[in-house]
Fold this protein.
Amino acid sequence: MDNGKPETLEHHGAELSFKERMSYGDYLKLDKVLDAQAPLSDAHDELLFIIQHQTSELWMKLAIHELTAAKDKVAEDSLPEAFKMLTRVARIFEQLNSAWEVLRTMTPSDYTRFRDALGQSSGFQSYQYRAIEYLAGNRNKALLKPHEHVPHVHDALELLLSQPSLYDEAIRALSRNGFSISDAVLNRDVSQPYLADESVTQAWLQVYREPERYWYLYDLAEKLVDFEDYFRRWRFNHVTTVERVIGLKRGTGGTAGVSYLRKMLDTVLFPELWQMRVDL
């Protein structure tokens, strides 16, 4: 300032007293968030392991929020609104992919110093990850069992299984736009795993052959593929990170570890959208 005195935060209108006001930390409940890390060992890298998984769960919470809303918008034929949400989901998975880069700075020696403290806990038991799979369309009732000990979680996942998935709603949108979709698909038990159907492949083929005519459906298809692309990368990065850290040991949750995760790479969320590319 011209009076020769140094500028202070008050000169810029910044609030400095929060005795009776909501602060940044109050709004974000940072006292709870930052107090949620409780390492069970004195290993330096356990904090990294906890924070990586906690932040991933926060991103997954947002992904569930967006996927649920996108599914509802597709059901309402409000496709442009769904596009923004699905684009956001893809970017969320880009963030989740980046998180593996941080975890990979942990060596096998680092991990062995606290692995026993994890007991039987495992990422396989993440109910939010299961919710994302169920929302997208990858449905397996057997995977409800690890959540039976938490009734409200089990009930929420069971409810998701009873409702159409995002891909079910996309296929129904094809039908509402005049495409001939088989009754076996439209009237199927949505709680069961989805099986690829030739009528759906033919519908997507027509959309891709005439994108200008079916622009919104074409854009919907690409948003779904974009999401699955990032989702596959996340699974692949999971496999490579686990193999880098524990090799071919069994997972803490009792799975076969890397070999189990590799099998998950074969899962396809939206099969006809990939098959159609072969036939186009």
Observations:
- The CA atoms of residues 60 and 242 lie 19 Å apart.
- The mean pLDDT is 89.
- Residues 215-246 form the longest helix (32 residues).
- The radius of gyration is 23 Å.
